[in-house]
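Hi team,

Filling in the usual template for the complex we talked about on Friday. All components are listed, including any nucleic acid strands or ligand strings, so the model treats them as one assembly.

SUBMITTER: L.P.
PURPOSE: interface mapping
COMPONENTS: two
RESIDUES: 915
SEQUENCES:
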Amino acid sequence: MKLLFELSKDNRRLNLIPPCDVEQVQLDERHLRKEKLNLPQLSEVDLSRHYTELAKQAHGVNDGFYPLGSCTMKYNPRIDEEVAAHPNFLGLHPTQPIETVQGALEVLYQSKQLLCEITGMDDMSFQPAAGAHGEYAGLLLIRKYHQARNDEERVNIIVPDSAHGTNPASATMAGFKVINVPSNSEGGVDIEELKKVVGKDTAGLMLTNPNTLGLFDPNILEITEIIHEAGGLCYYDGANMNAIMGRVRPGDMGFDCIHLNLHKTFATPHGGGGPGSGPVGCKDFLKDFLPKPTVEKDSNGYHFETPKDSMGQVRSYYGNFDVVVKALTYIKSLGKEGIKEASGNAVLNANYMMNKLKKYYDVAYDQICMHEFVLTLEGLKHETGVSAMDIAKGLLDYGIHPPTMYFPLIVHEALMLEPTETESKETLDEACDVFIELHKMAHENPEHLHTAPHKCLIARPNEVDAARNPILRYVFKND
Amino acid sequence: MAGYVVNTKAEQKEMLESLGLNSLEDLYGVVPSKALLEELNIPEGKSELEVAQEMKKIAEKNVVFKHIFRGAGSYNHYIPSIVKSVTSKEEFLTSYTPYQAEISQGILQSIFEYQTQMCELTGLDVSNASIYDGASATAEAVFMVQERKRSDMLVVDTINPQVLETVKTYCESRNVNLVMVKSKDLSVDVDDLKEKLNDTVAGVVIQSPNYYGVIEDVEAVSCLAHEQGAKVILNTNPISLALLKNAKELACDICVAEGQPLGLPMSFGGPYLGIMTATQELMRKLPGRIVGQTVDANGDRAFVLTLQAREQHIRREKASSNVCSNEALCAMTASVYCAALGPDGLKQVASNCTSNAHYLAKELSKIDGFKLISDKEFFHEFLMSCPIKAEQLVSKLAEKGILAGEVIGEDILWCCTEMNNKAEMDYLVETIKEVL
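RESULT (copied from the run log):
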């Protein structure tokens, strides 16, 4: 596929903006750009065809099965898009007079009420723009809390070895030291090891439950109690919330603050890597530290407030507002029974698939899983030389997006599958058949898998060379 | 059937039976019964028709202004039709981060094109695939220039307060000492900068055109900062770069910008786009995703996510940043916008913004009590005094369907874009005369 710049022709252009109808102003020469501006020069049809071709080389949820573990690639309802495209949402300037944005504030307020109920929290801010951004804000809540109590010794954040990479990275950004705690043989937090690392220096624990192995930690109440007794706080990474919404709440498991990924659990589209939305929620005793501003309601309607000891802002304005509109539309559509139905079926689909596949592939932890499960292909690799990567690439030739590969780090040759509730039994059966066929192929024709995919636009790319000799932009011939 | 679950009750039963279970509840046997939830206290689900009507009703409680003369961080620009149609394609909308290069060449190539365009606009060598918004991009840039022996960060106080608030939060969390550089006549006070610059300063953040619309003397700032070995972070408006000197010409090390003006609606503050480019030297310190060009096993051109050794999923607590999901679709929007406008179109937008703003400033100056606070050159925003209480004028104009400029103290920060033609600006001036 040609690049935009390779399609460009001098003096080709669209007629988009009328000429200026006031006197043209010449700014002082010393301010003006001298360097040539190499932007592509194209017609509208060039653009339309270019992006249509690029779209053919992209795989969205609408293109097919997408069991990418920990990413909750569920179907993104069309109505959510339609509602969010209403000009009365898109056309709002963020600092308009408050009486002219009552609908927008109602969106934020209603979303806060609903999501607080779903998570068992008391207050929430929509400012964080993505999951990791929400983690950062949540950790700053913990930091502010300890600071407010003059408990400055608490510098450690405990993170299990199965955690998402963003957890330790966020903790560092928030100024904490990361203490890793190992998993036990059942895939949960090793309680004895946890007890050893907690103390006066414990600021808090970051945990996702169900964890990245897709397992619900049965000791969760004991875990959060250990942290609380040591004077720390418990942070819930909401990335895996799709397994449990409507059934068990982080707030009832002993968590003090959370973030959600609206672009996972609440069906807003991922857009090829954002925009997401990562609201941060907390219990009452932390709400004074939330990012500013928060939305409140009184007899005059909705208004913004600054929490008493706010951490400040983690970005501009009120977060990815239009993403919140989509999530609210989704929650209203599902309602209380729909939310429970969604989580239950997400878990059912994962278990159904795991059960069918485990006759062929080793499951990392063979027990009832939540919304996702992890296969380990260590045995298969030993036997046939075919790796998790090879199976993943083999799936591409069948139009299936591969599972998350080589994660969590504690499972060797890991493939992590999350089918979500918006896939049918037929889709799961078909996908299982493909997995089984690839298993057979691994034994009969491993070479075919080592060189897979065979039906994509490109064969396997040379990633080592890409990192060693970085080419990060197109270079113009006249440069 | 509630929501978007596909399987019928009969299929669910069949699937449960294959697992030796009776109900969905049986799947949650491992959850301590004490923690199990009885029932969510939220309304029942609704049909699409009901939800559409309900949400429309909420939307209609908002007022969209017919005439907008406010910017201050969010700008009302024309969004070409092709931009909206491209970015609403479901393949782009519903895909994840392009981890699997073989079926994601479309997404990866679009990011590579975006990176190239941002390098072209800003003049710097490398771009990442985006950050959340201009404010968080600025804060991440501050982290990029931290060095062990340089603990101070200087920020010129003519910066957008939304950006400053964000930078403050980030600096506090990493114990970076933030020092404000004063301004004089709505632009940097070079003497104050000189006084505060020394070899403990890691970098200087300056916005130009700044919050008040004034074009700063960034070259002077860069020169002074570099003499002390400090890096310079320029926060700018991407539209202005078609007309004004870019970050390279201004000798800056990092350029960040709020990308919203490039084809994104104002949408009450988000989703927006954090643009971030840097010199080659800082390439491996860039946060977030980066796409690179390589070849595939057949020797054909291919694009991949690269330099991942910086990132959280590999480096965990030692990562350059925690950024994972960014604003990919917004970056694509900016890229389509730049491609649709082209070099001449973007220059025309920038030039119309400037000419309109200067016309409005001239016309407003003719009214008693309206006076420019500074006579420094400005891009498309300008701060002016107001003969009556600024808030009062804003509400009076709001009644006439006009969103006036942002109130700053007793003054008003007016903004014009290519959306405001002569007739509309004359209407504003007439209306002001009428309501005074």
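MY TAKE: The mean pLDDT of chain B is 96. Chain B touches chain A through 202 residues (CB under 8 Å).

Thanks, L.
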